[in-house]
């Protein structure tokens, strides 16, 4: 059976191998998971547990349900075929040149590193040489991108090493003289050159032979743009595959599937910050803000200098309008690393919350300067422009977000909103439809669409009713849909339907303990409606409820009650004047 | 992105611009430079200047030419001194060996510009005026170079190297590609080759029975690999020819080819590209789907890679997809274009005179979207969108857009069958609603047109004015004008269309030819002139006589140049062409065949090549129909064959429709009812199923169905079809069609022997014809009326004959073969059934008519009528006792009757 101990050993060896090959981010990721494994209680030392102390509090609060079924799954899942053996190093002792090259590499002198290894034929040396060359090309590409930026945004800077790297790696692959790391690099190169299917094949081969390289998995994940592609991959069973699937599901907006994977992994890597952050992300998409906030708080306590994923936290704080907490977070990331897109985004969020939209735009722009494909910054900038009533700029920003990722329903929604603001509701409908296509279970989107249909320019009330119905079925939290449904039916003269929805709305308000004009309206309508239908007893109930409130409604209720009595007795009586109220 | 990266009007120095600068140095050498002046004559010098000017302005491609192309062109221009020019150019390039040389080069360039204030100009020195076109070019180059950072200079320098050795470098690159491609899927290929080889072996085995294994395998292998390599080589050279030899080769190469952009290529200036895109847009609109959409797509892809901020690309892609009938892609790209640029890009060439607000031009987006829905046959969506466009244009008071939108809307309403618009237009447009909310569709169309015309007139949008006039003419042609609010004694009530006003509107539309110049933007004219001039360089000289001496050769180019400069923009000639087509249509309706034919011929000869392909198709269609009516089917089918070759590639080709019509008609005449029914069904199948779309086609189909049923003697069914058709026409306000449906109903009753019932229909048809001035149709209705009278009994023969003689001039002058023959036969019938008429004394009157009729029907292969004529003829001969002639007529009669009874036999014979 698979034990935590063997898992730990695998990762330990992998970290050594990865960092030996200068795959730093993969090594970093593996390291995080290593300390994420729950320590054997018999021999943990106080220093080991320091990382793990905090997260227990959140687990106590939220995992009562999870734990009950995560344990049995554990033994089930991991008792699968024998794990991939950890490969032996081909060059047990690194050559002197390799050591030199590695130190050059660590000092980010990539070209120098590759030059040192020019005549080395070992697999490891070849990989490091190619990898250094690739990174050198990437670095030059980034620089050129700025240098060559023309009037029309000409950005044809390419990594000039790709052609020669591809040639060399494909030759090596043909002779079989390439290890899984080489395959990973080959896959990356192919992906850059646009040959996606071959890249996928290479990456699959790489992760099947060496599953601990998270960078390879995440490259593979970025190539899985649909569930069909994902399912067609021929992957060996390994616990790393679970990580991969979880993140792929998340990217494909299958949040609950992803969550269950993470819960499953949580059984072994119970203290992994990564898993916690990803779980928070998934829950954020499911709009469980309170829980997400606590998870992020916890995460920050364990890992106070973390910047990754913190933009998500700032979004949560923004949604909860927690100014102070947001400013605290902004200050913290600013001190940690101010030139990270996430940091800029957090600061932008803060200013946006404070209503200083120009400043917010400035920070979002900075984030975009740092990473042009930073999706959420484009969308958020669009929101800011909408606030500033600069619809043209807002539309442009949203459109860029959509072109980076066509599944971004927020940006589609923003586009619709902007066009609606400009008095083009019919045009806006197309965009709302798009956004609903990607998130069909969100009542807010349905309500936005319904409002479009309801607008005075269009007056397409039947369609509006359909949308509100969908919204009500999706669990409309703000309670707009029922009220509107009732009103629309009332407007169209369908009193039975109107009464039905008013009643429903009343039930909802009662359940939530709300009061207000909607309540009066519903009560008055129901009372009048029932009275005209001669259901006097029920009408009386509503009238008496109205009597509890002050203001004109009370007077109206009195008049209604009088009418009811009159109708009940069957003849207009003088006594009615003296009826005690 | 609203200014995140865009720096407006940026201009970059490229190797090609440096070559132009070098040539400019030759053209206008500065005083300090000690270059020999190589020009033999002033004209030679001018020619170089003209060439350089064209280089800076032409817009025939998005990329700047490579050195190779430049050298080739110089050979054309340079005449005697081409070698010298090219030598100098290459030498100059090879002398640029370090970034510092570049710096010095541009410092020298300053010398060729004259200073603005220097009065003292030496006699023999040529000085470039700094504010001239070429002077501006030099100044912009110098400025752009001075703005470059050191990195920029380095980039320029390295791209210069690529530029100078582009041919060889490119070859290397393609080899690289090739090699890598082969390595990519060596595995697959090996497998493929093995498969191929085994296949071949198996073939051999089957053929000979023995397997000479050691001999054949390697050979087969070798052959197949060779084939593969060849196709790959072709592809990697970037040829557009796709031989598609193996599916394997194209699948592997496509992605790599697309993403890699040749580094030696640079984009032209913004203006040139915009001009090029505009020309492409024109081309797409004129040629429709006959233009290869994938080739446009590929250049758009390249352009987008090189200039992601040039949003006009999306618009072009939209146009392209629109014309290749890809709804989703068209919609997506249209929205994308307007999202990115707010519709302002590409319009900046036109002075922002009216209604250009800070808010972008989203109303234009609505207008385009509306027209797109219109084209794809979604009339209700289109109407919604256009209504919104009207609202938004009014809100931000963009009168230009409003005028266009109203025109589009009226066009939509008149083209699409929309039964009622009250719910759509109800609240939207105040001028419409203020007059009356219960207006009929035609009245709305009229108001919209008037409104659009008024605005266009005041905004001086000549093209719109012209096309509005044409739309108005069309409206006047089809609708009886009634005053909108008629009360009081002075309200004139005329229940007739007015041909004079149709004619007036058509003429007003054609006025455009005299004053279109105000609108055309100079940029595109300059650009297209320059590209035409450059293209002429490559053309072989057409007159070998003149090419002997160089002097006249130049003058001929000069005239060509002038010739182009007065040429009319495509859009103008399109509208004027359309006016001729409309003229032809109106003559057709009014019933003058020769006039209609003439107008169509004028159109086909004068505007055939500049017009849009759908208009040209329509002209051909009219001519072929004319042939079928007046010359018989043989000629018509021959002409159809020619037209088919030309137009069948179009997406919504009307040629197919015409072919079905002709076949149906032909089958009806020859009595092949099954075939006729089939054609009729196919015709109906062409129409869209959406309500209100393709009305014309639907009416046509059911009209033909009724006629087929009539020919099959299924009278009640035919009458049912015709009745429901009449209801449809009434619902959608198709007045002219109503007249012909009524006539058909009269026909049906006549054939079923119910003359009394037929009379009112015929009379109604005649009155419709009168109010719409449909003279020919009226004549034919009168003929039917006369036939109905005769059907009531021979005592009405006199009255029938009078009626017929009244209509005779029209029928004989303008009628088609069938109508004329019918009239002749009927005349004979009248005489014969008249008791006062004696055959023996007056036989020639009858025989002449009948002979005439039978001749014409021979052409038409209309067996039934021909048989009738011959039968009558035989009877007359019999009475006269001319037995020989009687026998002749009788045999002919028999022939027609057998052909009529066995239509299939004849089909077989023909096949």
Automatic annotation (TrEMBL), chain A:
Gene3D superfamilies: Tetratricopeptide repeat domain (1.25.40.10)
SMART domains noted in UniProt: TPR
Alphabetical keyword list: Cell cycle, Cell division, Mitosis, Repeat, TPR repeat, Ubl conjugation pathway
Protein name per the record: Cyclosome subunit 8
Key word Transmembrane helix present: no
Region described as Disordered: 68-87
TPR repeat segments: 341-374, 375-408, 409-442
Family: Belongs to the APC8/CDC23 family.
Annotated ranges, domain Cdc23: 7-280
InterPro entries recorded: APC8, TPR-like_helical_dom_sf, TPR_rpt
From TrEMBL, chain B:
GO biological process: cell division
Anaphase-promoting complex subunit domain ranges (all copies): 314-414
Keyword terms of this UniProt record: Cell cycle, Cell division, Mitosis, Ubl conjugation pathway
SUPFAM superfamilies in the cross-refs: TPR-like
Pfam family, any one: ANAPC5
Keyword Plastid (UniProt): no
InterPro entries from the UniProt entry: Apc5, Apc5_dom, TPR-like_helical_dom_sf
The keyword Oxidoreductase belongs to this UniProt entry's keyword annotation: no
Summary of the function given for this chain in its UniProt record: Component of the anaphase promoting complex/cyclosome (APC/C), a cell cycle-regulated E3 ubiquitin ligase that controls progression through mitosis and the G1 phase of the cell cycle. The APC/C complex acts by mediating ubiquitination and subsequent degradation of target proteins: it mainly mediates the formation of 'Lys-11'-linked polyubiquitin chains and, to a lower extent, the formation of 'Lys-48'- and 'Lys-63'-linked polyubiquitin chains. The APC/C complex catalyzes assembly of branched 'Lys-11'-/'Lys-48'-linked branched ubiquitin chains on target proteins.
Family named by the database record: Belongs to the APC5 family.
The protein, known as: Anaphase-promoting complex subunit 5
Lineage per the UniProt record: Eukaryota, Viridiplantae, Streptophyta, Embryophyta, Tracheophyta
């Amino acid at each position: 059976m698979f034990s935590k101990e063997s898992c730990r050993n695998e990762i330990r060896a992998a970290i050594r191998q990865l960092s030996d090959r200068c795959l730093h981010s993969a090594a970093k990721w593996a390291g995080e998971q290593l300390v994420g494994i729950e320590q054997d209680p018999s021999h943990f030392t106080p220093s080991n547990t320091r990382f793990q102390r905090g997260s227990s509090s959140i687990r106590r609060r939220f995992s009562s349900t999870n734990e009950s079924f995560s344990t049995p799954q554990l033994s089930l899942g991991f008792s699968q075929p024998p794990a991939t053996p950890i490969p032996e190093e081909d060059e047990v002792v690194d050559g002197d040149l390799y050591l030199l090259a590695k130190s050059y590499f660590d000092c980010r002198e990539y070209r120098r590193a590759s030059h040192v290894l020019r005549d080395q034929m070992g697999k490891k040396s070849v990989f490091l040489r190619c990898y250094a060359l690739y990174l050198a090309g990437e670095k030059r590409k980034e620089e050129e991108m700025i240098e060559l930026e023309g009037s029309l945004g000409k950005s044809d800077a390419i990594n000039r090493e790709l052609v020669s790297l591809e040639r060399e790696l494909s030759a090596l692959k043909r002779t079989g003289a390439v290890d899984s790391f080489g395959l990973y690099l080959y896959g990356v190169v192919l992906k850059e050159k646009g040959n996606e299917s071959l890249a996928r094949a290479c990456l699959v081969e790489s992760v099947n032979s060496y599953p601990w390289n998270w960078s390879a998995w995440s490259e593979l994940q970025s190539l899985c743009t649909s569930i069909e592609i994902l399912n067609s991959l021929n992957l060996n069973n390994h616990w790393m595959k679970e990580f991969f699937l979880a993140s792929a599901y998340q990217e494909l907006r299958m949040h609950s599937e992803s969550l269950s994977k993470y819960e499953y992994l949580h059984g072994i890597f119970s203290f992994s910050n990564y898993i916690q952050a990803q779980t928070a992300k998934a829950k954020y998409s499911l709009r469980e803000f309170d829980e997400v906030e606590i998870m992020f708080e916890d995460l920050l306590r364990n890992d106070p200098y973390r910047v990754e994923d913190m933009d998500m936290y700032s979004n949560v704080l923004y949604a909860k309008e927690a100014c102070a907490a947001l400013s605290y977070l902004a200050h913290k990331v600013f001190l940690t690393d101010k030139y990270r897109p996430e940091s800029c985004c957090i600061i932008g969020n803060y200013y946006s919350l404070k209503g200083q939209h120009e400043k917010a735009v400035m920070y979002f722009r900075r984030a975009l300067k740092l990473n042009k494909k930073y999706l959420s910054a484009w969308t958020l900038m669009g929101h800011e422009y909408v606030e500033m009533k600069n619809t043209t700029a807002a539309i442009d920003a949203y459109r860029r977000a959509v072109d980076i990722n066509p599944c971004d329903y927020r940006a589609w929604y923003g586009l619709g909103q902007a066009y609606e603001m400009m008095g083009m509701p019919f045009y806006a409908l197309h965009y709302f439809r798009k956004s609903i296509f990607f998130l069909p279970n969100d009542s807010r989107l349905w309500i936005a669409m319904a409002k479009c249909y309801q607008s005075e320019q269009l007056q397409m009330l039947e369609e509006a009713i359909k949308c509100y119905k969908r919204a009500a079925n999706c669990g409309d939290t703000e309670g707009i849909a029922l009220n509107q449904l009732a009103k629309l039916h009332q407007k169209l003269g369908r009193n039975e339907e109107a009464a039905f929805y008013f009643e429903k709305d009343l039930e909802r308000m009662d359940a939530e303990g709300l009061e207000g004009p909607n309540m009066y309206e519903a009560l008055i309508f129901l009372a009048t409606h029932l009275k005209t239908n001669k259901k006097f007893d029920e009408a009386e109930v509503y009238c008496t409820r109205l009597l509890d409130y002050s203001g004109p409604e009370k007077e109206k209720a009195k008049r209604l009650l009088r009418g009811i009595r009159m109708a009940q007795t069957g003849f207009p009586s003088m006594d009615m004047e003296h009826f005690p109220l | 992105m609203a200014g995140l990266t865009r720096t407006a009007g940026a201009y970059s120095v490229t190797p090609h611009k440096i070559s132009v600068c070098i040539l400019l140095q030759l053209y206008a050498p500065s005083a300090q430079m000690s270059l020999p002046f190589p020009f033999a004559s002033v004209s030679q010098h001018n020619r170089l200047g003209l060439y350089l000017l064209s280089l800076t302005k032409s817009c025939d491609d998005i990329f700047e030419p490579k050195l190779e192309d430049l050298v080739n062109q110089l050979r054309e221009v340079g005449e005697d001194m081409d070698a010298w020019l090219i030598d100098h150019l290459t030498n100059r390039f090879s002398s640029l060996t370090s970034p510092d040389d570049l710096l010095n080069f541009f410092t020298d360039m300053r010398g060729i510009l004259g200073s603005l204030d220097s009065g003292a100009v030496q006699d023999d020195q040529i000085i470039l005026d700094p504010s001239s076109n070429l002077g501006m070019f030099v100044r912009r180059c110098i400025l752009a170079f001075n703005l470059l950072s050191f990195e920029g200079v380095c980039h320029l320098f390295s791209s210069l190297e690529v530029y100078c050795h582009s041919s060889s470098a490119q070859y290397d690159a393609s080899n690289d590609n090739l090699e890598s491609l082969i390595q990519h899927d060596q595995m697959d290929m090996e497998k493929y080759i093995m498969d191929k080889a085994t296949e071949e072996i198996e073939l051999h085995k089957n053929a000979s029975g023995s397997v000479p294994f050691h001999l054949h395998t390697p050979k087969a292998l070798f052959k197949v690999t060779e084939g593969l390599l060849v196709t790959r080589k072709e592809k990697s050279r970037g040829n557009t020819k796709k031989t598609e030899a193996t599916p394997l080769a194209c699948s592997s190469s496509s992605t790599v080819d697309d993403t890699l952009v040749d580094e030696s290529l640079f984009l032209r200036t913004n203006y040139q590209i915009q001009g090029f895109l505009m020309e492409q847009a024109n081309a797409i609109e004129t040629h429709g789907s006959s233009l290869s959409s994938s080739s446009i797509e590929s250049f758009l892809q390249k352009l987008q890679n090189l200039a992601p901020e040039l949003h006009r690309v999306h618009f072009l892609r939209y146009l392209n997809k629109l014309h290749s009938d890809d709804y989703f892609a068209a919609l997506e790209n249209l929205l994308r274009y307007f999202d990115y640029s707010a519709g302002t890009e590409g319009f900046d060439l036109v002075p922002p005179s009216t209604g250009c607000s800070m808010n972008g031009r989203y109303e234009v987006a609505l207008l385009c979207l509306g027209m797109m829905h219109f084209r794809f046959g979604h009339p209700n969506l289109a109407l919604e969108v256009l209504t919104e466009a009207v609202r938004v244009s009014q809100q931000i008071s963009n009168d230009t857009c409003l005028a266009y939108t109203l025109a589009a809307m009226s066009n939509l309403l008149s083209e699409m069958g929309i039964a009622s618009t009250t719910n759509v237009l109800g609240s939207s447009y105040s001028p419409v609603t203020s007059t009356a909310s219960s207006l009929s569709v035609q009245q709305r169309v009229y108001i919209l047109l008037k409104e659009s015309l008024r605005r266009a007139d005041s905004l001086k949008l000549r093209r719109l004015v012209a096309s509005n006039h044409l739309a108005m003419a069309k409206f006047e042609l089809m609708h009886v004008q009634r005053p909108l609010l008629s009360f009081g004694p002075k309200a004139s009530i005329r229940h007739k269309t007015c041909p004079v006003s149709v004619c007036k509107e058509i003429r007003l539309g054609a006025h455009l030819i005299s004053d279109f110049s105000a609108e055309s933007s100079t940029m595109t004219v300059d650009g297209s002139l320059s590209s035409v001039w450059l293209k002429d360089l490559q053309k072989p000289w057409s007159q070998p006589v003149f090419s002997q001496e160089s002097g006249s050769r130049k003058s001929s180019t000069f005239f060509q140049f002038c010739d182009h400069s007065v040429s009319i923009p495509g859009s103008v000639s399109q509208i004027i062409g359309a006016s001729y087509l409309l003229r032809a249509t109106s003559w057709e309706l009014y019933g003058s065949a020769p006039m209609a034919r003439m107008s169509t011929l004028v159109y086909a000869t004068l505007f055939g090549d500049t017009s849009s392909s759908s208009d040209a198709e329509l002209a051909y269609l009219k001519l072929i129909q004319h042939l079928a009516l007046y010359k018989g089917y043989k000629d018509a089918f021959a002409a159809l064959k020619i037209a088919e070759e030309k137009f069948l590639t179009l997406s919504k080709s009307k040629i197919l429709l015409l072919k079905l019509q002709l076949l149906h008609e032909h089958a009806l005449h020859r009595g092949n009812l099954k075939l006729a029914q089939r054609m009729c069904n196919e015709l109906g199948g062409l129409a869209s199923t959406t309500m209100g779309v393709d009305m014309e086609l639907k009416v046509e189909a059911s009209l033909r169905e009724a006629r087929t049923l009539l020919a099959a003697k299924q009278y009640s069914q035919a009458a049912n079809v015709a009745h429901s058709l009449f209801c449809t026409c009434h619902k959608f306000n198709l007045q002219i069609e109503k007249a012909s449906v009524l006539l058909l109903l009269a026909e049906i009753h006549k054939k079923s022997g119910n003359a009394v019932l037929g009379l009112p229909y015929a009379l109604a048809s005649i009155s419709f014809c009168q109010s719409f001035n449909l003279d020919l149709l009226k004549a034919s209705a009168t003929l039917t009326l006369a036939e109905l009278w005769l059907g009531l009994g021979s005592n009405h023969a006199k009255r029938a004959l009078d009626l017929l003689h009244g209509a005779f001039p029209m029928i004989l002058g303008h009628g088609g073969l069938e109508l004329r023959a019918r009239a002749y036969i009927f005349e004979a019938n009248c005489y014969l059934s008249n008791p006062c008429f004696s055959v023996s004394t007056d036989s020639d009157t009858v025989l002449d008519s009948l002979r005439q009729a039978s001749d014409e029907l021979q052409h038409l292969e209309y067996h039934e009528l021909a048989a009738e004529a011959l039968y009558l003829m035989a009877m007359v001969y019999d009475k006269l006792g001319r037995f020989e002639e009687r026998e002749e007529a009788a045999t002919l009669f028999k022939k027609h009757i057998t052909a009529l009874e066995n239509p299939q036999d004849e089909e077989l014979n023909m096949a």
